[in-house]
Write a structure and sequence with these properties.
Chain A is α/β, with parallel strands linked by helices. Chain A has twelve helices and 15 strands. Chain B is of the alpha/beta class.
């Protein structure tokens, strides 16, 4: 408990307020409901609480004990020690949103660093200070496109290769008959050209993922051109780590690039907090939701940073704002900025190449197993789909007994992909780990 | 000269963090997809650590000083929370692992749901929303879906008091609802006549912050809720001010149908310079089926006699509005909040609110003679003063706020709520000592004196901060939003 008052101080303060007891401060609360008996346990000391939480943590198996081949939107990467050392600075993590720039230059300049790094990585012109995660960033892209056309275009095309959770989130945010959706039911084997059939004069936005949920890399240049021809906007949801190696969407016509920033130095942490990347072109900056930091000068002539274009935001526009976002992922954005700075130009390329080479080694070896087969011949980055000889849950149970966390069961989201596993490979696994995976997979066959 | 930007300290050819060499045969890279320019900074670890450490030193923070920012509940963030969230068993678990391998996480989430239900008086809780604003969105979507399910889709009107946070109307607007503002009465309560006039068959609900942003507990709250329910509407509780109510009253008992909790306010998870937050949502029994999925439930009962624990897993409510983000919520924040709750227990939770309210009333009492308190009655965890005097006509709340920085304090929230002129909204929280509160009150009284005797020192404040007042017009006009590393000649 964190209360400093001594009994004497408490009495003195009550006297200053002019009441006798603490209870007297709550007269406005309806008496019938005042001071309920909470059916909760008594307090623990810090020592006891930590022990209890440790016992829960130990009840889990984690990706540092198991060999992890699970991805599907969250990836097990190495996080340099310096990242957390910076995050642990109380000056960063115990500060609020930088509304008072004179005493928040640290946070403001760090966000400006983040915006700079993310625009460079994605090849775009402006980045906001972040959204909650990859899913909500896509949902905000839909809102932005809708308001960009002032509601006159009300159809959105979603690729089936966009993360299922992201698509579900988009539907939750927009389930109000203002928008119609198309594209999710096209053949998942086919490339992006199948989406062309759904693009028309009503289309506000087309959204694809890069690499897509199945790990595939497609050339979206022609699709982007068709989208623009139709007068619509083109959004790409990325794995930012892949952009150390791959052409950024800014080079092939994206108007909006969103992404899940978790691979950039953020712990898996059972799904959050993660980082919603949101970038666009300068012409759309006033349509973009979320906080934005700009450079300026102070009254002493120094360069300084401040939240800018705030007139777009909820606290000014209230019900006319396009988004209600207020808190973003400040500290997580900082973590990614430190990560990108530490790795830099060479390290970002190196880690992306490591993932690429290891994933391809794994894919080649698994494809040689008698009963397993790569599902797609498309180029891929660090994740690929394998057709398995048995239900994925069964195979994963067997892998787990060998200390291996197997891939994602695609049958959960795509009925046509029963017995298909999505395998992710990062720099964290060794050749030996991959060889073990292949050996154990080989033990599972039709028999 | 301030701290340079990363793009300015980058040195072409300098290598940063080094990874191991590849231990597998190298695969041919996909030529057609390769990027040719990677204009990222080239630094090494010392550059980076110094850069960000120096930046941190330019911030005011709870760890360095008092932060009485109204409506934000800037209480101390216990260090043990940080240790807990970083335990490898938590930090390195993947969200899609088989549930049998993450029972520890699921117990924490399940227990947190139970605690939040008990504290708020609700029948169900989702931990998924990423922040308070997303909790609001979740709540309003639940209200909309509930009415539609009952065949009353015509209910599209949300009532919002004029003292509300901007997120309330923004959330309603973004959910396709019509917003109607309800004025406050002279005591800071919802004006009952204005409310009655809007209670019709199009009413979807009322979004109510209680205590409101004036720090006042609505004296007619039961009548307000009765009127809305009578008209077929639901009542949404903005839990931003829950720090005043722990063990004092359960919003569910008062009749609130939905409420979001701010774990980053009430339950001590750090604000992180603007996130990550966490905004769980609690609902009454009739709305449990509409919660976003997944929730954590017991999917296989245990047997205590056999010392066989239950199996926890994910469950989806029958008429769920759907998911509001990927995966299951900000687990790292959930683990911190649960640790904090365990360390307070039933009595400690009540003391949080007792002392938060005492501290606010103490400051209000100390400042009452110097600053006009427009709604002057016993406040809850915060109060609003006016930053203006007739005999100091040029001085605004902003000047007082900036001058407070010279005393080493973060200013209160200013210009909010909108219904008070030159508002200074002060929330001290329970973790501050009498000495700190006295020093803050003394500084505000001193500033009030300066306002008359030396107003210029306020108009030009702050004087002792890393930077002075900023040219915000220039920032918006020039729109310099990033600094790219030059790729030329490198």
């Amino acid at each position: 408990m964190y209360f400093p008052h001594t009994p004497q101080e408490r009495e003195a303060m009550l006297a200053t307020v002019g009441v006798e007891h603490l209870e007297d401060l709550f007269q406005a609360v309806p008496a019938a409901h005042r001071f309920p008996e909470l059916k909760l346990p008594a307090a623990l000391s810090e020592m006891e609480a930590l022990l209890e939480m440790q016992s829960y943590a130990w009840a889990n198996s984690n990706t540092r004990e198991l060999v992890c081949f699970l991805g599907a939107g969250a990836y097990n990467h190495y996080i340099p020690a310096a990242v957390d050392a910076i995050l642990r600075r109380g000056e960063f993590y115990t500060a609020y949103t930088p509304y008072q720039p004179e005493i928040s230059q640290g946070t403001l300049q760090a966000i400006f660093d983040y915006q700079s790094l993310i625009t460079s990585l994605t090849g775009m012109e402006v980045s906001n200070a972040s959204h909650y995660d990859g899913a909500t960033a896509v949902a905000e892209a839909v809102s932005m496109a809708y308001s960009n056309f002032r509601g006159k275009r009300n159809q959105v095309v979603l690729s089936p290769g966009l993360h299922p959770h992201y698509r579900q989130t988009v539907h939750t945010y927009n389930d109000d008959a203002m928008l119609t959706f198309a594209g999710e039911d096209v053949d998942i084997h086919a490339g992006p050209e199948t989406l062309l059939l759904h693009i028309n004069e009503n289309t506000a936005l087309v959204i694809v993922q890069y690499p897509d949920f199945f790990g595939r890399i497609f050339d979206y240049t022609a699709l982007a051109e068709a989208v623009h021809q139709a007068g619509a906007l083109f959004a790409v949801s990325v794995n930012p780590l892949s952009l150390g190696l791959l052409r950024p969407p800014g080079e092939f016509g994206a108007d909006i690039v969103t992404g899940e920033g978790q691979p950039l130095g953020i712990p898996l942490s059972f799904g959050g907090p993660y980082l919603g990347i949101f970038t666009t072109r300068k012409e759309y900056v006033r349509k973009m939701a979320g906080r934005l930091v700009g450079e300026t000068t102070d009254n002493r002539g120094q360069r300084a940073y401040v939240l800018t274009l705030t007139a777009r935001e909820q606290h000014i526009r209230r019900e006319r704002a396009t988004s209600n976002i207020c808190t973003n992922q400040g500290l997580v954005a900082l973590a990614s900025a430190v990560y990108m700075s530490l790795l830099g130009k060479q390290g970002l390329r190196q880690v992306a190449e490591l993932c690429y080479h290891k994933a391809h080694y794994a894919a080649r070896r698994i494809n040689k197993l008698r009963d397993y087969q790569l599902w797609s011949k498309a180029p891929f980055f660090n994740e690929f789909v394998v057709r398995c000889p048995a239900p994925v849950a069964e195979i994963n149970e067997h892998l787990l007994s060998h200390g291996i966390l197997g891939g994602y069961d695609l049958g959960e989201d795509y009925p046509e992909l029963q017995e298909h596993m999505l395998i992710a490979v990062t720099e964290m696994v060794t050749k030996e780990d991959i060889d073990d995976l292949v050996d154990v997979l080989g033990e599972v066959d039709h028999g | 000269m301030g701290e340079p930007l990363l793009c300015e300290i980058s040195v072409p050819g300098r290598a940063g963090f080094r990874f191991p060499e590849a231990d597998v045969p190298l695969e041919k890279l996909p030529e057609a997809f390769l990027r040719h320019e990677l204009p990222m900074p080239e630094l090494y670890e010392v550059d980076v650590v110094r850069h960000f450490t120096r930046l941190s030193q330019l911030n005011h923070s709870i760890d360095t000083g008092f932060y009485p920012l109204g409506s934000c509940t800037m209480k101390y963030n216990p260090k043990v929370n940080e240790e807990v969230a970083r335990l490898p068993g938590f930090a390195f678990t993947h969200p899609l692992q088989p549930v049998e391998t993450v029972q520890g996480n699921l117990v924490v989430m399940y227990e947190l749901q139970e605690w939040l239900k008990e504290i708020g008086g609700f029948a169900g809780v989702t931990l998924q929303p990423a922040a308070g604003a997303q909790g609001e969105l979740t709540g309003v979507l639940i209200i909309r879906t509930y009415h539609a399910w009952r065949g009353e889709s015509q209910r599209d009107k949300i009532l919002i008091p004029d003292s509300a946070h901007g997120t309330n109307p923004a959330t309603s607007g973004m959910s396709g609802m019509r917003v109607v503002e309800i004025k406050s009465d002279p005591r800071g309560n919802v004006d009952l006549e204005a409310l009655r006039a809007e209670c019709d068959e199009t009413l979807a609900g009322l979004m109510l912050t209680n205590p409101n942003t004036l720090g006042m507990f609505d004296e007619n709250v039961l009548e307000v809720i009765r009127l809305v329910h009578q008209a077929g509407g639901l009542v949404y509780g903005d839990g931003a001010n829950l720090n005043a109510l722990l063990g004092i009253v359960r919003p569910g008992d008062l009749g609130f149908d939905v409420m979001h909790y701010n774990l980053h306010k009430t339950f001590s998870t750090p604000h992180g310079g603007g996130g990550p937050g966490s905004g769980p949502v609690g609902v009454a029994a009739h709305l449990v089926d509409f919660l976003p999925g997944p929730l954590v439930g017991i999917i296989e009962e245990g047997d205590e006699a056999e010392d066989y624990p239950p199996l926890y897993g994910f469950v989806y409510p029958a008429r769920s509005i759907g998911r509001v983000k990927a995966f299951h919520g900000h687990f790292g924040m959930l683990a911190r909040a649960y640790t904090y709750m365990r360390m307070h227990g039933r009595e400690g939770l009540r003391l949080i609110s007792d002392y938060a309210v005492l501290n606010a009333n103490y400051l209000q009492a100390r400042l009452r003679d110097t600053y006009h308190i427009p709604y002057d009655r016993v406040c809850m965890h915060e109060f609003v003063a006016e930053g203006r005097w007739v005999d100091a006509p040029d001085i605004h709340a902003l000047d007082i706020a900036k001058r407070l920085m010279d005393h080493g304090f973060h200013p209160p929230t200013n210009y909010f709520p909108l219904i008070v002129h030159e508002a200074l909204m002060i929330e001290p929280t329970e973790t501050e000592s009498k000495q700190t509160l006295d020093a803050f009150a003394d500084a505000l009284i001193e500033i009030a004196r300066e306002a008359r005797e030396n107003p210029e020192i306020l108009k030009t404040a702050p004087h002792r901060t890393p930077v002075g007042r900023l040219d915000e017009v220039k920032a918006a006009k020039e729109l310099v939003l990033c600094c790219a590393v030059s790729t030329a000649g490198a």
